[in-house]
Specification:
elongated; 2 helices; alpha+beta; 4-stranded antiparallel β-sheet; about 110 residues; 4 strands
Length: about 110
Amino acid sequence: MKNKFIAVLLLTITLSMQGCSSTAKLEEKLASWVGRDANSLIDSWGYPDSTIEAPNGHTVYIYKSSQQYQTPGTGYIFSVDCDMSFELSEENNIVAWRYRGNGCTSR
């Protein structure tokens, strides 16, 4: 049981450090899309996993990612996920972005 705890703790610390080091890079990359055409985003990232209509009437493209890691020798599975969204203006330009999840890193 002690070895399982240590393995989970080390995996958690490793993933946390990766997240902290890449958050600024991710935000910089997402911010670089503001003002650009949605078709450019699709050309680069592919079609979104889903779209929704925001309360202000804008379309929002949502890209999702999910990964699972297994700690060696324990069988413990740790999941990380990330939802990245881009809000589009009536002219089809990106006006805002957001991300949410425990696995958001720069693409």
